[in-house]
Amino acid sequence: MADGTVIIIGGAEDKVRDRLILSRFVELAGGENATIAVISTASSLGLEAGERYRAVFGELGVTRVRPIHAVTRPQANDEATVASIHDTTGVFLTGGNQLRLSSTIGGTRLADAVLDRFQDGAVVAGTSAGASAMSSHMIAFGASGATPKHRMAQIAAGLGVLPGVIIDQHFQQRNRLGRLLSLIAQNPSLLGLGVDEDTAGVVGPDHIMEVIGRGSITVVDGSRSETDAWEVHGHRPLMISGVVLHSMPSGYRFDLRHRARVVTPSLHALPGGEAASS
User: 10 Å Cβ neighbour count for 27?
Assistant: First the structure.
């Protein structure tokens, strides 16, 4: 079976009104027939975070929701914890502290079970810290600001559900362009994805990312860039030139594998489009 779908959410997704992003997750997980695990390890709210999402998904028609709050590595290797993942059609990682999430469950049987479910076709979603942890290379922490600087952010290993990218969240709201640029300067093989709040990228097995929600996803492609990052010291600004930047609002699609926007016909180019837009 082909890999499942990944949903990376920039945090602060709508939980009370239209619930566009969470509704898409539920739909992809099987709707009323879904079995969803909510992993709240990243959250400082403990079990409360899992119960919050259990309530939201319940209001969206899902009756089988299993909160999992593994806070130690032994818990993340526990047979009962791992068994609760085995028949899931959707896994949701809450927000919080992504370093807490990756250092607690990274390399455990729980993390392996999530990857197994994904490889069997399940949908795996993460919001805020949960989104950051989706990639193989994860932003552990860093500073805000538009200017890229040396030592602006620290990288750690993520869960590897969505390799080849590095994800930042609360992107526009917390002014995080500088730290994403600095990381791409140092790691140009990775594709940077800066996800705004109440915004998500839905990535299918074809590696095409569809943007949904209220904001945009900023895509930073440094594959042809040049930088002096290797010779800058301290916390000084660094040079990066030749970056290709895409800002993709809701409705647009981007090919992560080929690093290109997926071109779709303009509404104005369709029959009746001009009249429809007036």
Answer: 13
